[in-house]
Amino acid sequence: MNAFTRKSQKRHSHIYASEERTAYLCLIPAIIGLTFITYLPLLAVLVLSLFNWSGLGSMKFIGINNYIKLFTTDPYMLDSIRVTIYFAILAVIGSMIYSLFIAMLLNRKIPARTFWRAVYYVPYVLPATAIYVGWSWLYESNFGLFNYLLTRVGLSKVMFIADSRYVIPSLALIAVWLSGNLIVIFLAGLQNVPRVYHEAAEIDGANGWQRFRNVTLPCMTPIIFYNLLMSLITNMQIVTPALALTNGGPGNSSRFITYLMYDRAFIGNKLGYASAVSFVFFILIAVFTGILFATSKNWIFYEGGDER
Amino acid sequence: MSFAKNGAMKSRKRKEKVINIISIVIIALVAAAVLFPIWWIFRTSLMSNAEIYKYPPAFFPSRWLLSNYREALKIFEFWKYFSNTMMIIVPAVIGGTLTATICGYAFARLRFRGKKLLFMLCVGSMLLPAMVTLIPLYIMWTRILGFQDSYMPLILPYLTGGGAFNIFLIRQFIMTVPRELDEAATIDGAGRFRILTRIIVPAIKPAMIVVGLFIFITLWNDLLQQMIYINSADKFTIALGLTNFRGQLKQDWSLTMCATCLSFAPGVIFYLIGQKYFVEGIVMTGLKN
């Protein structure tokens, strides 16, 4: 801002004051939301986790006992962390590879591109609960579509979501199927890669793979980062299949940490204890997104240097 | 251009063409694989239970048993669930879009003290997973504010700007509207409210529709929050109704698939109508951030 505008701003300080008043008025909803829906509850999770409280009656301060109990005597905690991470890794990697691959194909000169793009997007607009109920039929142990396909190619039947070894990969496959939104974002990103780069590389004699490796991929890193982050946050919060289908089973094999939290809070009525689970979950996500952000500097390529 | 170079160009063009054909074949095959589960669910909903268990399974129902739907609707009260769901979604979408627009406008256009801090808090909250604060919010809505068996805890959060992500999206869009338009209107004597409604809103309408769709999809996909806040069967949403239906008729696959298809239907219909916005909206979010 130069001296002139600053001076004229001072002259119109009454305008500025009214502007400020309008701004605060406009932002009342956001301020209420950030205070009461976001940051205070986050603090409250931490505070509640230090109490023993059933939701009724008095609260009893017990320090970090909930956390000690979580990691020493709770039979589900460590399993639920493991299951959540296992699912998130499969779902994130699967959907990233799938959607980048499809987006690259769609980025070629092909007829009816918008039509195909719309088709890949369809699963994303279906309600989650119905998707899992529908897929539970496809995964059915005897008469389901997938078992029919397996027997057709000479393999033996698999119980999919009723088998502790297969339930997580089976649910991750649904997550990949749902990732049409990533395809759309990748495709838009690919269309933004300047053509001149490709042409220059082509003149230099780069083949298809080299062009992908050295032109497309670097230009796409900001979009890859965005998709990776969104996909990670979404998939770590998975809970609907456990609620609608598996109840965390068979055994503990789909007891996601979110489901454990739900179970402790709303079935077991241990709100303090469940808050401790929430806070561990918060730390878990923070660690993963933190790693993503920390490493991003090394692999994200911003066009025009370090302006961002 | 030399003759040899021309030949090389031609062979490369031919190679491009072959790759394009392979691409379209893969795209069509994978697209078919993506849609196939939906077809399979739909075809099951029209079959008798005897036909479902036949081996090998049929790809088309021998007779389209629409009566299955009549049967399913006796237990799965779709219209009630649908209107209940809309009673949550409609106010949330309208309220969320309006408040996100107003807040986004303030962040994009107005100068005020604490703007940077507030904006940082706003962006930071996008990374906070909603799941983490579930329990304190539950206590707040049901114990402190007394909303028992009510839609309010599902609707009210959207009246606070519809979430930081939406405010951010709107802000990014308003930033692309030339300021000169505002200034010209100010000279013509328009106040801020007039500028917002007459200039900003028409210019960012697509972004507002996208925000509305995002809120729609979030609520549409939710099961957990509806489960913990809604108790009575009279207030069941589609997601709750379907979960409940499945619990009752675990083995009746064709009726369960009827209920599933009915739950799919509104989403598919909205998608067919607003396809452009659904897809373009996702594009915007990906590139604006």
Secondary structure blueprint with pairings:
The complex is a heterodimer of chains A (308) and B (289).
Chain A: H1 3-11, H2 13-48, E1 51-52, E2 60-61, H3 65-72, H4 77-106, H5 113-121, H6 128-138, H7 145-152, H8 167-177, H9 180-192, H10 195-203, H11 208-236, H12 240-246, H13 257-267, H14 271-299
Antiparallel strand pairs in A: 1-2
Helix pairs in contact in A: 4-8, 4-9, 4-11, 4-13, 6-12, 9-11, 11-14, 13-14
Chain B: H1 3-45, H2 49-52, H3 67-75, H4 78-109, H5 115-126, H6 134-144, H7 152-155, H8 164-175, H9 179-187, H10 192-203, H11 205-221, H12 224-229, H13 238-248, H14 253-288
Helix pairs in contact in B: 1-14, 3-14, 4-8, 4-11, 4-13, 5-8, 8-11, 9-10, 11-14, 13-14
What does this structure look like?
Chain A has 308 residues and is an all-alpha fold. Chain A has two domains: 13-64, no CATH class; 66-299, MetI-like (MetI-like fold). Chain A contains 14 helices and two strands; from the N terminus they run H-H-E-E-H-H-H-H-H-H-H-H-H-H-H-H. Chain B is mainly alpha-helical. The chains are: A mainly alpha (308), B mainly alpha (289). Chains A and B meet through helix 2, helix 4, helix 5, helix 6 and helix 9 of A and helix 1, helix 4, helix 5, helix 6 and helix 11 of B.
